[in-house]
Amino acid sequence: MFDYTATYTDQYQITMSQVYFHKGMKNETAIFDYFFRKLPFEGGYTIFAGLEDLLKAIENLRFDQKDLELLEKEGMDQEFLDYLEDFKFSGNIYSAKEGDLIFPNRPVLSVEAPIIEAQLLETLTLNTLNYQSLIATKASRMRLAAGDRKLVDFGLRRAPGTGGYAASRAAVIGGFNSTSNVRSGRDYNIPISGTMAHSFVQRYDEEIDSFRDFAEVRAHDCVLLVDTYDTLKSGVPNAIKVGKEMEERGEKLKGIRLDSGDLAWLAKESRRMLDEAGLDYVKIAASNQIDEEVIKSLLNQNAPIDLFGVGTSLVTGRPDSALDGVYKLSYANEEPRLKLSETVSKINLPGKKQVYRLFNEDGSFYGGEVVALADEDDFDIMVHPSDPKQSRILTEFTKEPLLEKVVENGKRISIPRATDEIAEFSRQQLEKLPKEFKRFDNPHAYKVGLTKKLKELRDSLVHRHKERV
Amino acid sequence: MFDYTATYTDQYQITMSQVYFHKGMKNETAIFDYFFRKLPFEGGYTIFAGLEDLLKAIENLRFDQKDLELLEKEGMDQEFLDYLEDFKFSGNIYSAKEGDLIFPNRPVLSVEAPIIEAQLLETLTLNTLNYQSLIATKASRMRLAAGDRKLVDFGLRRAPGTGGYAASRAAVIGGFNSTSNVRSGRDYNIPISGTMAHSFVQRYDEEIDSFRDFAEVRAHDCVLLVDTYDTLKSGVPNAIKVGKEMEERGEKLKGIRLDSGDLAWLAKESRRMLDEAGLDYVKIAASNQIDEEVIKSLLNQNAPIDLFGVGTSLVTGRPDSALDGVYKLSYANEEPRLKLSETVSKINLPGKKQVYRLFNEDGSFYGGEVVALADEDDFDIMVHPSDPKQSRILTEFTKEPLLEKVVENGKRISIPRATDEIAEFSRQQLEKLPKEFKRFDNPHAYKVGLTKKLKELRDSLVHRHKERV
């Protein structure tokens, strides 16, 4: 993995810290909230991913000698450099569970720490959570489209550099079965799979010889790529020949892969040819520019595809390419803090907060959450963040707090969770979300309301700032 | 940086290698070409970036103990594992110069090595070059739009995970002046810069106090963010006050930053206010959803902006998100190799090749290149890759070979180049490209032709394969 050091951040985090340090604020407690504003892919939810990686990075985050030398060269003073040399995170982190569904404009993760420490985590937090959450969400959409067919991440070659390392992890959290990315499979304990490349077939004068050699050495895991010369005239007939030869040896051809042309038609024709040859157990894999819309279209055409290999659209999260997560100061100098904006929805929520999810009586998600002040113990109404006429009585719902303390005084206190465990949790949560929110076209809008107390606090701070200006 | 090991690859590279190993092909020489098919951003050129990082990674690429344990668990046999334990790249690499302009369907980099070694480099090569070239190209477009105004990479928080590390490097190669990303600045020796965040202003009860503290501690590098409460009523007036106070101390306020609202209008008003206060030396920086189109629009409106801070659109390379680079086998088993395709432009170029750029008499780029067989020493005509009616006599041009040997028998033989040197080379090359190719809308199409010999070789192989099918 990447060897994070504390300079994996924006320069201003360090210069602002220098000011805090020299102005006597270094021990002052601050709270920053990580949240996002817009659901990606015009969808109805986001999958929260990246937390385990983030917490691991924070636990070990230090300025190393190279960092300190650079900062000295950049003109930082010795007293501050001495402070940075001893830097390690000593605060608290409250977070949603990784794999859970998250929604706009409510805290997903909150950092409560000496202001310099909290500030220095900003860029790392955004960098890690924004990307992995985007990719997990993209993967989840493909999972919704693919039903119970297999989904394999083929993205490393088109991934944004080493970002591809974590993309494979996020894909599994969002519902992918496995990855072709061996290194991520190794480090994140993700199932690894793959087929063969055109180059392998090209190496041979005859396609069938390449199939035979592969089937011999990789008999237990043999998926043959059939489109190098001509899918139906050459690739599939040769795969069938080799499949029958494998049967004679008591082995089984696992699958064929289609990687070009009209996948729906080729899959149907290939299926028919395989079945007619008695190879009905041989699976059909498809790749080449796959995304959730292509999967939906192929399955609507009843294409008999058992496995989709997805690359570019998965690891780039296109067309959105980035989740717009931000990290905003909500408490400092012993007071709740606010950033004004012309757009009400861009004004942050001040103070230390908790988020409650609303459940129907049968345990399903109602489709809404309430953001409350952390010390509120009783409220039975939620109000709209900007429309004073909209509110909702909460007595019919069960409420469940979503932010749990995962780091206390710099020490991880939650139990680290494996990737497959997070993926399974995510799957269960998505199941509880009513299907209207999972629709691709104009999904239901999940409600995020505020308690009256929080809204009053925010409005009074807005008023105070506006008066001053 | 990332600790690459040889499992930073797709699973099939290893399984195909296993077949080559057991079928007696491990010492057979193969040639693979890296090239791409489609210019990103509907532009007229691509900037080649990522080579130095790639060569460094290849030089040190090994299977470590964790890799070998995983592969054993995945069922690889001991003999092959023993071979992998000793794996290191021993072949040759021919490459275009990093920072040069590259065009579709001609080799950018060629690997000539024992087939297993060449195969095992595929994913790493694609992963590194595709992303950095995309980002350098995106950066270069912003440079074209921005003229001589400063461009700063603010992208790490929205970058695709650790991909952001190399993105900052690629941005500089494409023409950015500096980055906020301290760690990349440190490792790639890139200028680092930054301003201040809203959180810093929010920390204080009064905006002006935050400005004063920052100006005191960071007097030599003070850019004040003026939109936390109200840009023209509060931010700019407070920045002017602090600027005048700095003057009294013999210091100079460096700049202000606008991060929301109508940037064109706010820049003009801010400029007027600053100038009226005698602070005409104070620069104006702008950020918030900047890309090449926004820069063009702002400058068309004569917005007096001196510096653009660019985040998301730079590091994600949207809307394209990925360069479609591929790595194709062109020689193996002592013969040129081909992959057929229904689309002629997708058929690869067989054999060992060289690429020649055509220059006009005055040293400017003609706007075309010829792909030749490596052992051709004389040709004076180039033909269109698919249209037999199109050809061009080359006698009026000077030709320059573009692929140079950078690795020989596994050893780096070209001198490593620093990021700023590559950036300067790229700038010079772009200057030589006629402006019609640099236009954003419908740029001139750069010609990539073949020598007759290469075309004949390709056509004869196509013919042979089609006959067989």
Oligomer: homodimer
Going by helix content, strand content and strand pairing, the class of chain A is alpha/beta
Radius of gyration of chain A, whole Å: 26 Å
Helix content of chain A: 25-40%
User: What's the overall average pLDDT of chain A, rounded?
Assistant: 96
Main sheet characteristics of chain A = 7 strands, antiparallel
> Which geometry of chain A do the CA atoms define?
globular
Q: Which fold name corresponds to the CATH topology of the domain at 143-316 in chain A?
A: TIM Barrel
Please report the number of helical segments of chain A. Answer: 16
Measured distance between first and last alpha carbons of chain A: 48 Å
Strand content of chain A: 15-25%
- Catalogue the unreliable spans of chain A: none
| CATH homologous superfamily descriptor of the domain at 143-316 in chain A | Aldolase class I
CATH class of the domain at 143-316 in chain A: Alpha Beta
Keywords (chains A, B): Glycosyltransferase, Ligase, Phosphoprotein, Pyridine nucleotide biosynthesis, Transferase
EC number (chains A, B): 6.3.4.21
Protein name (chains A, B): Nicotinate phosphoribosyltransferase
Pfam family, one (chains A, B): NAPRTase_C
Map the helices and strands.
2 copies of one chain form a homodimer.
Chain A lengths: L10 H12 L6 E7 L10 E2 L3 H9 L5 H9 L4 H8 L6 E4 L5 E2 L6 E6 H6 L1 H25 L3 E4 L9 H11 L4 E2 L2 H7 L9 H6 L3 H11 L5 E3 L5 H18 L6 E4 L4 H14 L6 E4 L5 H9 L6 E4 L1 H5 L9 E7 L2 E2 L16 E7 L5 E9 L7 E3 L7 E3 L4 E4 L2 E5 L2 E2 L6 H14 L14 E4 L1 H17 L1
Parallel strand pairs in A: 6-7, 6-11, 8-9, 9-10, 10-11, 15-21
Antiparallel strand pairs in A: 1-5, 1-12, 2-4, 3-5, 3-19, 12-13, 14-15, 14-18, 16-17, 19-20
Helix pairs in contact in A: 2-6, 3-4, 6-7, 6-13, 7-8, 10-11, 11-12
InterPro entries (chains A, B): Aldolase_TIM, N/Namide_PRibTrfase, NAPRTase_C, NAPRTase_N, Nic_PRibTrfase-Fam, Nic_PRibTrfase_pncB, Nicotinate_pribotase-like_C
Catalytic activity (chains A, B): 5-phospho-alpha-D-ribose 1-diphosphate + nicotinate + ATP + H2O = nicotinate beta-D-ribonucleotide + ADP + phosphate + diphosphate
Enzyme class (chains A, B): ligase
